Amino acid sequence: MSSQDARNSTRWLSVVALGVTAVLGVVPGLAYADDDTPAGGCETVAVPVSTGGNLIGQLCGPVTRTDTVLVLVAGSAANRSYWDFPYQRERYSFQLAMARAGFATLALDRPGNGLALGPISGATPGNQPPAATTATADAQGVHEVVQALRHGTTDHQYRRVVLAGNAVGSGVSVLEASTYHDVDGMLLTGYSHSIDPPVAIQALPDFRPAAAVEPFAGRGFGPGWFTLEFTSDYAKRWYFGPDVDPEVVDTAQATRDVFSIAEWPDGLTATLPGPTSRITVPVLITAGSEDRLGCGTVCQDSATLHAAEAPYFAPAAQLQTYVQPRAGNMSLLAPNADELHHVVIDWMNATVPE
């Protein structure tokens, strides 16, 4: 490993010592008011995976059937509710915005959280070793979901599949795309090769063993299962504190989940030059201008981010970048989330048109 690779590994390990959250146990299907239902409606789908059990997610679509779907993978700090936030959906729901733009979305629960109760197997998490849930295993499961979407085993066949991730979910997406080469584009959020270890280390107090934190205590979580505890500095680290709506923070706390520490060691490889250099489809990286956790000091503007990230990608990636002003790591939950939605929609229309 080169000295540059070693530095990148250290950066990811430090930040990855950050990423975890959302509500364990069965999460009921989300209910919508008439005025904020994605145009074509939503349904819960379960896709069997070879490692056992199902990966479960919320599939939403526009009124007119589309051949394009985005597969959404949240970070350690969230389950599928991150993409369809249950507070002020008109402002924060990525799935609602994409449906209105004509795209289908499938927001997945990573193994071990949301409706995917056990590490891929679907069993009670406390009865499963956390080592069963790694970023590589997550990527394999996402690959099988992509194949199911392409072959019509969900609702119908999709000809174009785009992966979208946040934080560790972006790492899983990088591992999937660089290994299986079966998607048409990638959206990476809360992700870069420029993580700042000292800043990441400051966030370590936000994370605690799931067995020590309500409502997860007493549910059988052994060593290796963690969750996010909302400390006094949480909002400053994960959002842009001066702008974040306190109700957003409260809702994020109400929907927090658990994660396996085993996702981190192989997840760190997603920020090394190798995996991203093997991606051969268009890539859009978006970041919050105030995201010191996932973006270090390279997110002053879109041009600076592009200059920092371009060396890690092949020309085939046609790399584009966008820095969202006054947003932190959880950029979809910034008050100006609609600006990010519009950037993604424009990129989708230009990159994977119907």
From TrEMBL:
<protein>
    <submittedName>
        <fullName>Alpha/beta hydrolase family protein</fullName>
    </submittedName>
</protein>
<dbReference type="InterPro" id="IPR029058">
    <property type="entry name" value="AB_hydrolase_fold"/>
</dbReference>
<dbReference type="GO" id="GO:0016787">
    <property type="term" value="F:hydrolase activity"/>
</dbReference>
<keyword id="KW-0378">Hydrolase</keyword>
